[in-house]
């Protein structure tokens, strides 16, 4: 399957380094040419001789080998079709995010012009460190493919997120990236620079953008709640891109994000409504990417609800306000105050069937200017994934599809489209 392809495997100093021996075998079984670079620390966990035997190639560690006439980091970068860094330690991730080239591996990354997959593995507290998260976010937004670690028991004795993801996942992602049309037709595979150029035309300086993100949490009792699978990634990507375009951003979210723009942490749909009411009147754009619970528990118990001998248990729910429809109605009422400055309101639509039809119905029912529709029955897009595929629908019910790509790029394109179209469309609901 990978005949004629060269995979460059970068191994850094973590206990999961030993697992990479099997990954190399998987690539070899698929007929790939495998080249390996290690940091010096990686060799504390796996030997150069093992890696050399498995890959059937010299293993690079030092940057300046005397018997090479070409700068090594450039020749490694030129030869490979894809680079896979696994396990990637917090240290190497942070160096890459800041363009530091102080060993062979980081120098090769800096010179590499094709897809790079990063599979982090580390202690769960290191993984959660906001600095590491910010570095990963930066790399992800630059087009690096980050394969999030799994949760479970860690070699350091902790339990949490930080285990190297399954080797099958790394193998599958490598194969997909290496065989995509984009990769074949574009040898200089620079992930997002083109889109960045296109959308850098958007200048949101002086504009206020409100974004909602994450699934709302509706308490049942002090220890249980009703929620959904929204991770907040889609909303966060929109907020980040609006911030990059110069906007004043307010992100209203149920998740623990840390950014250098305003974040309002809320929990339930009612709290989200209050937060939006506070910010609404001064907004220019509102993006409702959060997954809001349609119902909440009627009587939230003060104490933990005890199990009884009954086999059935009924939870009584009442309807939450439709926040999006409410905002659109308020905008209409206050139209005279806002005049032409009324905010553009963008709803999202999460469906598992009849996506376009339901989304077109929603834009009419709710009265918003745009609906961004996505299919949440798919595992590879929508809820929690790093990628999305969406349809942008405007008030004339015109539909524009954005093909599957990272949520960062989807966010840029949504912002660009909404910005351009809202200048031409009447935005008073
Ligand atoms: O967060 P991620 O894991 O990245 O996933 C992204 C996403 C799938 C959550 C996102 O792209 C998305 O589709 N968000 C909208 C989810 C949703 O609630 O869809 P809906 O079709 O049920 O609601 C339509 C719109 O009305 C949404 O903008 C929603 O925010 C809003 N709504 C819904 C119910 C309610 N009571 N009040 C609302 O304002």
Write a concise keyword list for the protein shown above:
single chain; 429 residues; alpha/beta; Rossmann fold; 2 domains; six-stranded parallel sheet; 16 helices; binds ligand PMT
Structure notes:
The protein is of the alpha/beta class and 429 residues long. It is built from 16 helices and 20 strands. Strand 17, helix 15 (355-366) and strand 18 form a beta-alpha-beta unit. It is globular. The N and C termini lie far apart (53 Å). Residues 181-200 have low confidence and may be disordered. The structure holds ligand PMT. The site of ligand PMT has 26 residues, from helix 11, helix 13 and strand 17.
Determine the mean pLDDT: 89
Structural class: alpha/beta
Helix content: 25-40%
Give the CA-CA distance, first to last residue: 53 Å
Shape: globular
At the fold tier of CATH, the topology name of the largest domain is: Rossmann fold
CATH superfamily of the largest domain: CoaB-like
Quick description:
The chain has 429 residues and is an alpha/beta fold. 36% of the residues lie in helices and 23% in strands.
Write the layout of secondary structure elements.
Layout: E1 6-11, H1 20-29, E2 33-38, H2 48-55, E3 59-60, H3 72-79, E4 82-88, H4 90-97, H5 104-111, E5 116-120, H6 124-128, H7 130-141, E6 145-146, E7 150-153, E8 159-163, H8 167-179, H9 181-185, H10 193-199, E9 208-213, E10 218-221, E11 224-226, H11 233-244, E12 248-253, E13 262-265, H12 269-280, E14 285-288, E15 295-297, E16 317-319, H13 323-333, H14 335-338, E17 344-351, H15 355-366, E18 370-375, E19 387-394, E20 399-406, H16 407-424
Parallel strand pairs: 1-2, 1-4, 2-3, 4-5, 5-6, 9-12, 9-14, 12-13, 14-17, 17-18
Antiparallel strand pairs: 7-8, 10-11, 15-16, 18-19, 19-20
The structure holds ligand PMT.
